[in-house]
């Protein structure tokens, strides 16, 4: 039997996938509860008086950024190593992920990364820009989840999913 991956990288890839799936589940929960509301400029302006909404925003922004960081810094590089590749920079990592079909668009992934910075820094400074960024992050969240799902599917296709024991 020949392997289509390097077994010495299997454990690191497994751990990265497990963590990505947990992060994705937390983000999915926060995303669905936050965006079940109609978010308008007035809603954003009310955040200073609504501690409950501010906490929900903080959780979403944190989870959005954490999943994104994990995908770019751990998940994709570890699966690339599993397949015998070693991209160095984030742009190399994203170009590789786009080439193999894990990321539909490296440019959109980079754009989502910029959103995270806007969400953190424009939170209370510019309500219009924050609203625009928040709505764009709403649209970008499924893209992040799609990356995790595609990598999980790739793990299955390699025949290592049962080795990973990921639920």
What does this structure look like?
The protein is mainly α and 167 residues long. It has a single domain, classed as Four Helix Bundle (Hemerythrin (Met), subunit A). It has seven helices and no strands. It has helices at 10-34, 41-45, 51-82, 90-100, 106-121, 127-157, 161-164. α3 packs parallel to α6 (127-157). It is elongated and about 60 Å long.
Percentage of residues assigned to helices: over 70%
The residue-averaged pLDDT reads: 91
The helix/strand order is: HHHHHHH
Structural class: mainly alpha
Supply database-style keywords.
167 residues; Four Helix Bundle (Hemerythrin (Met), subunit A); mainly alpha
How do you describe this structure in short?
The chain has helices spanning 10-34, 41-45, 51-82, 90-100, 106-121, 127-157, 161-164. By secondary structure, it is mainly alpha-helical.
Secondary structure layout plus pairing:
Layout: H1 10-34, H2 41-45, H3 51-82, H4 90-100, H5 106-121, H6 127-157, H7 161-164
Helix pairs in contact: 1-3, 1-6, 3-4, 3-5, 3-6, 5-6
